[in-house]
Design a protein that fits this description.
161 residues, mainly alpha, two-stranded antiparallel sheet, 5 helices, 53% helix, 5% strand
Length: 161
């Protein structure tokens, strides 16, 4: 536990939001339609974290456009799960090889080469996982809508009785 020094103000983990972000959104302002409207949708380019992005860019950028070697098939019909298992197995094998290098020759240039190979394997694995994000979002939405439909039907049944 942290020691509390008397006379010192406690600091928040995160700063409070600026007043102008919420002070205009009172119940009365929202009711009277005086609350600020949401910002306009960005069209074209925008800057985020020091990088320029375009609104028409692909959500998941190809590995090749990032200068990273793709270690799995480019075909659309390959089995993602099989490829992820292969990458996972390769990561484990490369990790064991790295441990072996670290034990017998820690100053060897092979160590850095092996670390880079593991890095590329992890990037490829994460890229495959991220390709599932749109599917995951659709499936989550489908399940949510199914639950809402079930709840509505159950409520309607209870009201009919």
């Amino acid at each position: 536990m942290a020691n509390v020094v008397p006379g010192e103000d406690a600091q928040l983990s995160f700063p409070l939001p600026p007043l102008h972000f919420y002070q205009h959104y009172t119940n009365e302002n929202v009711k009277n339609d005086l609350a600020p409207k949401p910002p306009k949708v960005v069209v074209g380019e925008y800057s985020m974290y020091g990088h320029i992005f375009k609104t028409d860019d692909q959500i998941i950028q190809p590995l090749e456009s990032q200068g990273i070697m793709r270690l799995y098939s480019k075909e659309e019909d390959f089995d993602h799960i099989v490829e992820m298992k292969k990458l996972n197995h390769s990561i484990l094998v490369n990790y064991l090889e790295l441990v072996d290098i670290m034990i017998y020759a820690p100053a060897s240039p092979e160590r850095q080469k092996k670390i880079e190979e593991i890095k590329v394997l992890f990037i490829n694995l994460h890229h495959l996982i991220n390709e599932f994000r749109p599917h995951q979002a659709r499936e989550t939405l489908r399940v949510l809508l199914h639950r809402q439909k079930q709840q509505t039907l159950e409520t309607a049944d209870r009201l009919r009785r």
